[in-house]
Amino acid sequence: MTRAKPEDDDWNSSKIHAFTFDDDDDEFTKLKESKRAVSSILVDDDDDDDDDDDDDVEKVSWSGEPVGSISWSVKETASSIRSGGEHGFPKINTAPSLPKQGSGYSLSSLFKASTRVYAPELRKPKSECKDYFSDWSPEETVKRMRKGKVYSLERFRSLQDKLLLLDEAVSAHDGNVITAVLIYLKKSLSKEIFFQELMVREIALRHYVHYLKEMEEQKTLVELMKLPFSQDDAIHVQDHYTLLERQIIIEATDKKGEAEIFKKFPRKASILNMPIITTLYYSCFYHYGESEGTFSSPANIRSTFRISEKQYILTALGARAKLKSWFDVDSLFNTKNWLGYTKKRSPIGFHRVVDILQKNNAPVQVLKDYVSLIDDAELKLSLAQKYKCHDIVIEMYRDLKDRQQLIVYQGKVERGSHEDRKIDQLLGNMQIRWKN
Amino acid sequence: MAQTDRRDAPGLPDFSLLKRLARDQLIYLLEQLPGKKDLFIDADLMSPLDRIANVTTLKQHEVDKLYKVELKPVVSVSDQLCFLIRPRIQTVKWIADVVKSDKAVGRFRRYKIIFTPQKFYACETVLEEQGVYGDVTSDEWEFYLLPLDDDIISLELPEFFRDNFLEGDQRWVTTAGSALRLLHFLFGPFSKVYGIGRCAKMVYESWREQVEDGEKKAQNPDIGNVFLIDRDVDFVTPLCSQVVYEGLVDDIFRIKCGSVEFGPDVTSTDKSLKVMLNSQDKVHVGETQRKKEIWWEKQRKKKRCGMDIKQMKAFVAEELKGLKQEHRLLSLHIGACESIMKKKTKQDFQELLKTEHSLLEGFEIRECITYIEEHINRQVSMIESLRLLCLLSLTENGESYGIEHLLSFANLRQIGLLVEQQPGETLTVMESKVGKLVNDKTAGKLTDAFSSLAKKSNFRALSKRLMLIPKTGEEYDLRVPRDMAYIFSGAYIPLSCKLIEQVLERDGWTGFEEVTRMLNGHEFAVTGPEDSKYPQRIILVMFLGGCTFSEISALRFLGRERGCKFIVLTTAITNSSRLLESLLDNQG
């Protein structure tokens, strides 16, 4: 008995263990297939049925390697790949390559589709095809299904047979057939067992999920999704439900539209199923200032869904600006520094704040407060000019000691206006050392 | 549009045969339900059907009234109802409802469902479950291939992309295999098949098995080589703004089955007009098209926003003198150009292109990010913003930030358009996880979130290795394009087309291991029975998941350069909007 090679560490090569969730379950499937293949070679009178009672006995192939070992199946795959010749075009290995486990979004065990492990010389010649449906193997059944011929799935009654049928369908890469088999399994297996098996068969699972979506069987989908695939998914699902719950509560009260604001700004649509940010915006619009204790308050939504400061300010700004609540906008940016003085700060550039305000038709009076907070001098100057914040422009030219520009700008302001006089004053100021 | 060819270029097979075959089969199926009948047609099938059999033909075979499939009660009074549909569960459910409501009021009718290109078992199950299986007859109309031009064939299956790459549903694999089988039967046998991508492999296998089981016929083959390529091998190209003429028109007006509908603002009348955009469209013959393209490029490159319409009209009047009889069509195209200019100027097209080119090149990325942020902020177009974000993500191997819109990010992550940043990389990562901004209408969409996504985009490395960005030393003369980059104004050679070019040159993937690794493998190259008579210079390229006009133009260019002809077979024509829309799942 050959010892397990280092790369076969994943395999318990001394004993073939029973199926457990923690193992790489796909290897069990592969093993089953390999077992079946080998048993049909080695034992003459072998039935197609799986022999569970043989689990304790290690099987080896005729080359002496443990059946199911990686090197054995690699050899099998190699021998099943032919190049061109009188048989026409050759088969190629269609097993999907292992997806890398980079992100948190991954199934706890990925399904690696087993490659076809039959050696070519073992393929039964077409003339020997069986005609009685009770004798149709999973392979034959799937073949018939792909061609649209008569088939029968009822004979696959044991769980093992059903799973073999499913795996066969998956390895045939035909979604139509895969879905058909899944429909059959759904009808003939309990939900728990069916879901259990799906969890370790990614391709089958995807087909089933798509089928449920199309059939609009939301309830079943939800149940399927509650299964623990990964930590991230669990959080994600939880978030989704929490949000929906909130929206239902908010919707129930707001629908009546009693408060003043609903009369002034009637809602265009229901809040249900809206994304988190849209919900936040809605809350900032209709429920601003409510205490954190209420479900509908922006503060509550912000903390429950762990919304970043940047995101929050951007959204709140949009909502308050739309309502022209300049005072609220102002408060958004107030922070106290360590000395206790209030100063303005923004996680998004003030030029962006100005942009948003301007889009909501904020008056120049309001705009100029924020323009003046822009750090970048060039940007500040250009925006000040764009939005006619004359005072700022004038002051900047004064600071830059640019007399020429100031003269040019004077041409743009109204004759006799306050700005005009201000510029005159500056131009007449002997103490300023103009650079031009 | 087919252009002036080299004299030694091979001739293309005649694909109008495909239309005749489809038409004949449809007529046969209609005749299986003798007598007057009303025909209900799936919305997606109306344009393709138009190209196969017009209303007159249908009426000749006892079709009385034509209706579009809409999920509401039918008003037809006919005794026989025929439904021509794609095999969608939703549609079949509706048909079952129609039958059941008839039953409920004791109304007896005959119902026939024609599934195209094939029926799915799930559809039959619905009929069975709804108790109407015995009341309807069903058939399959094997309409797989619609020629859109001399060298373009479409399966008209836009859902292929979403179903296969997003939902992981392999239902259309056999369909694609059958399409290939049909071409193989009519115009083959093929000699060599190259390919790359998981789906490509599956389609190849499906085709191979179908051919094995089917009739063998010796024939003078019209098509020699086949190249299968998955859409997800190259996402960057379809996300780029198109500047070739059909690409532009497609981006703005949406070309459907090779024709486009121009509204009143373009036609300068109060009517809309449908125009065929292919080589049958006489305006686009040879020189004219080239001149227009080049002139259009030149104008765009000029810094001035807003083109001079007078100049354009003058150009048309003077330089295209010989085509007075096509004047009407010409003025339509000018109208289209005007419309394009209006839209594109508004969006500051040049600034946009500059940003895209920088992204492709990997140059001044910070400026690009700022531009994208502002673009999102200005709320010009959500799809455009998303497109730019995806482009940024793909070219920079990571996630971008600043997304404040309704976006189905689970979907995007699933197919690798937005790849998670690894810590320690240069781009600033979004504070809140992308997943927070996702909204899923049904819980089912959350399933996308757990897919085993980790396909790293290696665009930068691929771009260097394959030299996809031409050197910007000399001025790129669009009048004399020297490589496929001309379809993107000299900025970028489409990755997909470059791959095809290289593999054909090397007759396989040997020596290309570095590249295939960066593309996540799944490449293959197989040879069939040797036959020296096969036409090496006619190559069928099959895009699984869609293909853009830009890529078609690039392949046409490549063909002219190499003295060979490419036939583009695609599951559907696509562009950035269609790609993103299928991700955003705007359909109910």
Automatic annotation (TrEMBL), chain A:
It is found in: Cytoplasmic vesicle; Early endosome; Late endosome. Residues 159-233 form the Vps16 C-terminal domain. Its main location: cytoplasm. GO terms for biological process: intracellular protein transport; vacuolar transport. InterPro entries: Spe-39, Vps16_C. Residues 39-65 are annotated as: Disordered. Residues 43-57 have a biased composition (Acidic residues). Keywords: Cytoplasmic vesicle, Endosome. One of its GO terms (cellular component) is early endosome. The keyword Oxidoreductase does not apply. It holds the Pfam family Vps16_C. The keyword NADP does not apply. PANTHER family: DEFECTIVE SPERMATOGENESIS PROTEIN 39, SPERMATOGENESIS-DEFECTIVE PROTEIN 39 HOMOLOG. This is Spermatogenesis-defective protein 39 homolog. It comes from Electrophorus electricus (Electric eel).
Automatic annotation (TrEMBL), chain B:
Keywords: Protein transport, Transport. One of its GO terms (biological process) is protein transport. GO terms for cellular component: late endosome membrane; lysosomal membrane. It comes from the Eukaryota. It is found in: Late endosome membrane; Lysosome membrane. It is a peripheral membrane protein. InterPro entries: Sec-1-like_dom1, Sec-1-like_dom3a, Sec1-like, Sec1-like_dom2, Sec1-like_sf, VPS33_dom3b. SUPFAM superfamilies: Sec1/munc18-like (SM) proteins. PANTHER family: VESICLE PROTEIN SORTING-ASSOCIATED. Belongs to the STXBP/unc-18/SEC1 family. This is Vacuolar protein sorting-associated protein 33B. It comes from Electrophorus electricus (Electric eel). The gene is vps33b.
